[in-house]
Amino acid sequence: MKLLITAGPTREPLDPVRFLSNRSSGRMGYALAEAAAARGHEVTLVSGPVALPPPKDVQVIRVVTAADMLAAVKLHLKKCDALIMAAAVADWRPARMAPRKLKKGRQQTLTLELKRTPDILKSISWLKGQRIFIGFAAETHNLCAEARRKLRAKKLDLIVANDVSRPGAGFEVETNQVVLLAPDGVAEALPLMSKRAVAERLLDWLAVRVRRRS
Ligand code: C5P
């Protein structure tokens, strides 16, 4: 199977030396890419800025902003059978990027105007066709309700929900604790496990889904 996977945060520049971003380390998306390649899938990984080495046998495309990520996903979507959006795309970007470093001057406050970044999954949902789309939902409250809302809004086949306020789950750690939610299926709550093990479970789900379809 040909898989397109996104990973890591995006960075939205404020000036040449500053940016808005989030705490995503990219580990979940990289674990998925590594596990998928080890199973013999053809993997393209669109990665935001992370400090991880490129996974073996994976084509890595490096991007910085949400707009870059959208362009790269659009470009590679046509030749993939499934898209897994594990990236923590920044939801907001500074409305303007200053061409020079912003100076402190004497001011004690600075008000930033922010604009929404494109929602990648929503912008490409019309290109879905027979492809399987999987998303992630990192939440701090109302985990399943929020994840179900995103599952519908983004027209996904599966959403991987994780409560990032729990110790050992979510950003910057080696482990994760997730709930898998499909539109018509029952929620499957997985125990705390390594991100690689979560990746394997997700790829198992994908394999069953593809087998059922054919
Ligand atoms: O940020 P949010 O909770 O909406 O993310 C849910 C899913 O949507 C994730 O899979 C994420 O990669 C994706 N997403 C996106 N474009 C955005 C924000 C999130 O495709 N601008």
Rg estimate, integer Å: 18 Å
Q: What's the tally of helices?
A: 5
- Order of secondary-structure elements: EEEHEEHEEEHEHEEEEEH
The small-molecule ligands in this entry are: cytidine-5'-monophosphate
Shape: globular
Largest sheet data: 8 strands, mixed
How is this structure best described in words?
The protein has 214 residues and is an alpha/beta fold. The chain has a single domain, classed as Rossmann fold. It contains 5 helices and 14 strands. The protein has helices spanning 27-38, 66-77, 120-124, 143-153, 195-213, and strands at 2-7, 12-15, 18-20, 42-47, 58-62, 82-85, 92-94, 114-116, 132-139, 158-163, 175-176, 178-181, 188-189, 193-194. The chain has an 8-stranded mixed sheet, with helices on both faces. A two-stranded antiparallel ribbon has the order 2-3. The protein has a two-stranded antiparallel ribbon with strand order 7-8. Helix 4 links the parallel strand 9 and strand 10. Helix 1 packs across helix 5. The model has no long low-confidence stretch (mean pLDDT 95). The site of cytidine-5'-monophosphate has 14 residues, from helix 3 and strand 9. Residues 66, 85, 87, 89, 91, 117, 119-121, 135-137, 150, 154 line the site of cytidine-5'-monophosphate.
In short:
The protein is α/β, with parallel strands linked by helices and about 210 residues long. It has helices spanning about 25-40, 65-75, 120-125, 145-155, 195-214, and strands at about 1-5, 10-15, 20, 40-45, 60, 80-85, 90-95, 115, 130-140, 160-165, 175, 180, 190, 195. The longest helix is centred in the last third of the chain and has 19 residues, at about 195-214.
